[in-house]
Automatic annotation (TrEMBL):
Belongs to the carotenoid oxygenase family. InterPro entries: Carotenoid_Oase. This is Uncharacterized protein. Binds 1 Fe(2+) ion per subunit. Pfam families: RPE65. Signal peptide: none annotated. Fe cation binds at residues 221, 271, 351, 541. GO terms for biological process: carotene catabolic process. GO terms for cellular component: chloroplast. Coiled coil: none annotated.
Amino acid sequence: MAISDDARGLSIFGKPIVPTKKTKTTIVNVATNMPKTTQYPVPKEVVDERKLVAWTSVRQERWEGELVVEGEIPKWLNGTYLRNGPGLWHLGDYNFRHLFDGYATVVRLHFDTGRLVMGHRQIESEAYKAAKKNNKLCYREFSEVPKHDNFLAYIGDLANLFSGASLTDNANTGVVKLADGRVVCLTETIKGSIVIDPNTLDTLEKFEYTDSWGGLIHSAHPIVTDSEFLTLLPDLLNPGYRVVRMDPGTNERKMIGRVDCRGGPSPGWVHSFPVTEHYVIVPEMPLRYCAQNLLKAEPTPLYKFRWHPESKGFMHVMCKASGKINNIYQIKDLIVLKVASVEVPLFVTFHFINAYEEKDEEGRITGVIADCCEHYADTTILDNLRLQNLRSWGGEDVLPDARVGRFRIPLDGSEKGELFAALNPVEHGRGMDMCSINPNFLGKQYRYAYACGAQRPCNFPNTLTKIDLVDGKAKNWYDEGAVPSEPYFVARPGATEEDDGVVISMISDKNGEGYALILDGTTFEEIARAKFPYGLPYGLHGCWVPKS
Ligand SMILES: CC(=O)/C=C/C=C(C)/C=C/C1=C(C)CCCC1(C)C
Ligand SMILES: CC(/C=C/C=O)=C\C=C\C=O
Ligand SMILES: [Fe+2]
């Protein structure tokens, strides 16, 4: 294996390279069940001392090198963890506004019999290349819109919005490994699907869908397994969603079925969605795409979306085999499959955790359970993710509450489903987002979820938390002032227990430094960490590429 241990690369867009202090961090396992009233703001001196590396642009285009490992990485952990995220938030002196605007930075942790090589690199999207070349924003990002020199240019840009030409391809949300081995970085625009090399992090090509579904947007979180790729294509013209499947080795999405919206002027935002063994669950969230906001030059507090409580929330259950959602009975492999479309309480979620089918004593499916990181139907979290807000924390407890929201969708023809907290949110500090599960339990009854919770006061989820959905308990990892990224579970080969494996996260700490962290999946204790040469910005979602 070729290992380079030098930091090579360029500083980007003129950002200075600032040396970081060497300080040891203290790890505390916390109990987060302090009542709100006994929590105090973090003292100003402590807040002022914190470096904001999580919310600071990555300092150079790329780096690769072997890391020194403290502790022991299990010898069975062989493969590559890739994590994508919006890591570059400025162009010259111009600072982007929202976390989701940044140009994609992919980080790679390559594990080989106890050794660890880290690399990071910018994705060479058209949007990123054009920004570098022209030193200005050239495509419409999540909240940022290019400025126009004159009225004609503005009209041209509006026309380009409808064709999709002016939309970004900045693939900064996640990265998936398809069953055929291709590794694709994704965002919510369909054109922002970009194939990368998981070893060199080279940008290889645009992932071209060869079907003719058209449309501009899809779910940022497709469901990817060894046999398929499922995603949702919101239909903004005739409000609804197409549920599509793509087979390994192809670029063609075939339609499983279509769901019409039951409320509102447009489909609800589908950042993610869950599946069970037999069903695709299509959430219809009252936070809906909004054409007027899409046209605005300045961001609204809800960006390209609008909150429509009057339109209600719904969960649709589509049979994977037939594409049907109406409440009829179907015989497939002698199982009676019932499907449903129910009204549910208002909800706000980015991320579904998992879903599964509930059965009675005879093994008949009676309902569907779908779990998500739910923000109590409060949309303010979206605006809280503005960089200014993340960077200007004064020590107050300002992170809105979130919970593991559990939908119960009856399949007996009832018109309504339920939504409740799957465990007491105090267990995880009333913060909850950025989740993963053991992928072998996708769509099946499961017990454990890994996510970011809160040790309050805070303005962003700041703990790693292991949720036990059976006992209703959580184990929390916390490093004062640190921002951990999504905990990612990798199962030990041959494991029979659901939590037998490790959890990987990357930490941006309060000293401006950063490290890869490996926790034991069962005990949730740290087993290894490896310091990065410098702190890295916060990142969103990752995937595991096992050693071939
Ligand atoms: C980083 C993340 O989680 C989400 C990124 C979302 C993006 C880039 C959304 C972009 C969009 C446009 C540029 C116009 C159309 C609507 C929408 C999909 C929100
Ligand atoms: C980071 C985040 C929410 C944090 C809230 O508590 C959401 C990210 C969404 C995109 O992937
Ligand atoms: Fe996401």
